[in-house]
Design brief:
CATH topology: Rossmann fold
Number of strands: 6
Strand order of the largest sheet: 2-3-1-4-5-6
Strand content: 5-15%
Helix content: 25-40%
Number of domains: 1
CATH class: Alpha Beta
Order of helices and strands: EEEHEHHEHHEHH
Number of helices: 7
Distance between the termini: 12 Å
CATH architecture: 3-Layer(aba) Sandwich
Shape: globular
Largest sheet: 6 strands, mixed
Length: 216
């Protein structure tokens, strides 16, 4: 069976694929799952990166300069994991009278542009995109601070629109919401800390989904 090589790029939620055990001091992490080999070269995790800032040369996370530096060779497959920071810190704050669908659509359109104008140029195989990252209820409600609708509504809408964007562009959406939530919050069993999901619980789910997605 052919080994499928998948590079992982994203914000701190790339920890779903590796966890501390697989993160090497030199910034190169490799983890195998059946016929999949996930790798993260030279610290591909860009902590705090947002979809909204992916195309900004002067974003706080320096995402574009960092990515351009790392995409210096052709890749077989890539999985991109961005969006949780947008849900937590940006989308609701900047709705400015628009609907949730409109606010999320602005972010997803930037993601689509980023994937097509930058990532697609360096990948010979498939582009996979992780869907929305759910929150634990206590943490989500603390972030909400009484605001409505609750944060999981934004997460669900992001997940839905990412899936539609992937279908439109021939990308593959890796969504875990239906696996670890009942449509709202996740449980403590799936948490590494108050915001990050536990690699030991998520990695087998992600692995099986990606095997099916890459199947001929």
């Amino acid at each position: 069976m052919k080994t499928e090589n998948i590079h992982v790029l994203g914000d701190s939620h790339t920890g779903m694929y590796f966890g501390d055990r697989y993160r090497a001091d030199d910034g190169h992490s490799v983890r195998d799952y059946k016929n999949l080999r996930f790798s993260e070269s030279h610290n591909w995790t860009i902590g705090g990166a947002t979809i909204y800032g992916l195309l900004k040369e002067n974003s706080r996370s320096k995402c574009i300069p960092n990515i351009r530096e790392r995409l210096n060779e052709g890749l077989e497959h890539i999985v991109c994991t961005f969006g949780e920071v947008d849900v937590r810190n940006h989308i609701r704050r900047f709705l400015n009278g628009r609907t949730i669908e409109e606010g999320v659509s602005e972010v997803v359109s930037k993601y689509e542009q980023f994937l097509n104008s930058i990532i697609k140029l360096h990948v010979s195989g498939k582009i996979l995109v992780t869907g929305g990252i759910p929150y634990y209820q206590e943490f989500g409600e603390a972030l909400d601070k009484g605001a409505t609708p609750p944060l999981y509504i934004f997460t669900n809408e992001l997940d839905r629109q990412i899936n539609e964007m992937c279908l439109k562009n021939g990308f593959l959406c890796v969504s875990v919401l239906n696996d670890i939530t009942s449509g709202q919050w996740t449980t403590k069993d799936y948490l590494e800390d108050e915001v990050h999901l536990k690699c030991s619980k998520l990695f087998p789910i992600l692995g099986e989904k990606i095997i099916k997605l890459l199947a001929p």
